[in-house]
Amino acid sequence: MLKQIYIASVFLLILLSTVGCIHKKKTIEVNVNQQEIANKKDINNPVIRHIRTADPSAHVWKDGKVWMYTSHDMEDATFYDSMDGYHAFSSADMVNWKDHGEVLHSRDIPWGVGGWMWAPTAIYKNNKYYLLYPHSVKGVKDDMRCGVAVSDVPEGPFKYLGWIEGVEGQWLDPCVFTDDDGKTYLYWGVREPKVALLKDNLLELAETPRTIEYGSNNFFEASYMHKQNGNYYFSFNAGLGGFYAMGDSPYGPFEYKGGINPKQRQDHHSIVEYKGQNYFFYHVQDWNGGTKYRRNTCIEYLYYNEDGTIKEIYATKTGVKKIK
């Protein structure tokens, strides 16, 4: 009888212990799930997740929205040759972005190869919207041309117009900038940055290209120009982060200031002011299986110091908050 009671007691203890473990496990799982949900509320980067996007060219157009035009990385990419099909996105609150779909593809261009649609830039001029973009003629990085496409509306599609003679070579990464006087400049180059005034048709250079003096020797690619409070900011990718210089002319010379986003690899950025706040657009390669060939667009706040210099930016998962 005592033996039977002992066996029953042991069985009961085992049963209670098992139930306790199950209950404990369920409690932990619930807590983890709740924490994940809580964390997701504060994670806004990357801002585009349904496709891989890179090289964001951000703008505030006359409709009062922020628009960005991006290159498109493929999920199976092992190099940049498969990049194709630029996309247009718009937002009125900086968090919710509408994908307007593919706006220009290599198949729309009468010269060049499939893929090789690298970092685009955009501009509103002559009451139209333009995309300027690098594309390879033969499928090698040393024979890029700067193509031009146009649309009557920001969401495209964009129609091929032609290409700018005198702007060829390696890894163009063009940036187009219109100053307050209406003059439009093109910036491009790899390892040696170039600038030239464009004619109003955006298909011809109005002058011989100039080499940009920026007070350093770390330029690699991804020229960018913006203006704030009378200062001209020439920024770029140094291969391992974003850096910048300041000047009082779109040609320079510029005074080198150092890092703007120095800890982010492959920084290729653009900057806009929207509803009184400055924003910094860039891409990352470390999200959800990403690589340097499979990237995603992110956004951070950008702030200036009293002397006009830019406060260093750190890549975050939080990103920016929704504008109400």
CATH H level: which superfamily?
A: Glycosyl hydrolase domain, family 43
Number of helices: 1
Output mean pLDDT. Answer: 89
End-to-end distance, in Å?
Answer: 75 Å
Structural class: mainly beta
Helical content stands at 10-25%
- Provide the CATH topology: Tachylectin-2, Chain A
User: Which strand-content bin applies to the residues?
Assistant: 35-45%
Strand order of the largest sheet: 1-2-3-4
Query: How many DSSP E strands?
Result: 19
The backbone outline, from C-alpha atoms, is globular
**Major beta sheet summary:** 4 strands, antiparallel
What would CATH call the architecture? 5 Propeller
Order of helices and strands: HEEEEEEEEEEEEEEEEEEE
Given as residue ranges, the uncertain stretches (5+ residues, pLDDT < 50) are 1-39
* CATH level 1 class label: Mainly Beta
Furnish the topology, listing elements before pairings:
Layout: H1 2-40, E1 52-60, E2 66-73, E3 86-91, E4 98-104, E5 121-125, E6 128-136, E7 144-151, E8 159-169, E9 175-178, E10 184-188, E11 194-197, E12 210-211, E13 221-228, E14 231-237, E15 242-247, E16 255-261, E17 270-274, E18 277-284, E19 296-302
Antiparallel strand pairs: 1-2, 2-3, 3-4, 5-6, 6-7, 7-8, 9-10, 10-11, 11-12, 13-14, 14-15, 15-16, 17-18, 18-19
